[in-house]
TrEMBL record:
Protein name per UniProt: Helitron helicase-like domain-containing protein
Lineage: Eukaryota, Fungi, Dikarya, Basidiomycota, Agaricomycotina
Source species, domain of life: Eukaryota
Pfam families in alphabetical order: Helitron_like_N
InterPro entries: Helitron_helicase-like (IPR025476)
Domain Helitron helicase-like per the UniProt entry, residue ranges: 21-183
Amino acid sequence: MEADHPTTQLWHYHAHILHEPRFQVFGCLTNEYVMDMFSCNLETRLNFIQANQKCLHQEDAELMGIDNIGPPKNIYLPLSSLGSCHWASNQVSDSLAIAATYGNPTFFVTMTWNTVWPEIVSQLQPGQTFTDIPAMVVHVFKCKLALLIKTLKTMFSNAGHVLYCIHSVEFQKWGLPHAHILLKYTASCDSASNINAVVSAKIPDDPLDALLVCTFMTHHHPPPQNPLSKYCQRVQADGS
C-alpha cells in the first residue's frame, strides 16, 4: 500500500485490513470499525502530543531564539496534526504566498462524488448503498480526483502550462467527498474566445453529453409559489 504521507504502523495495519472482502458486506459494522479505528489512532497521537508537549514547545522556542522555557500551561496541537490551528494557518499562509508570487488563480473548479459512478455501483451487494462501502467510495473518489487534476493540467493548450494547482477535500452532507481546485495558467484567459475554449454555458450537441450536463450540472429552481429554501434544489421539468 502506498501512502501520500508518512504514517504509523498502527494506521497502516488498520487501513490494510479494510482491503479484506468481509468489510464489503458488513454495512454499518464497517462504518463502526472505521470510526473506532480512526478514534484509536487519533487518541494515540493526542496522548503522544500531550506527553511530549514540553519538547514541542522547546522546538518552537529555539526557532524564536529562546533558550529555556517553563512548563507549558496549555496544550497545543503541532503543525503535523491535521485540522489543528497551526496546520490550518500554515495551509492558508502557503496558499496566499503562492497567489502573491504567481498571481490570482485562473480557474476555480469543484468536484463532487457521484452516487451512480459505475466503479461504485458494481461493488454494491443486493440491498446495499454507497454508505455501506466507505473505503471503496474514498478510494474511487481519490483516483478520479487525481485523474481530473492531471487532465486539467494538460487539456487546455490555449491556456499554457500550469503555474500552480491547489486543492482541498471536504466531506459534505451524507458524507460525500467534495473537492475545491484552484489552478493558475501562464495565459490570462481573460478574453471571450479564450474562456469559450475552456468552458461554455451552452448545452452540448452530443446527446449523451447533453444528458450528463442536464442531470448533474444544472441547478433547477422551484416555482415562485413554493417556499424559498436556503439549499440549492433540483426539481423536475414540471416543477415537482
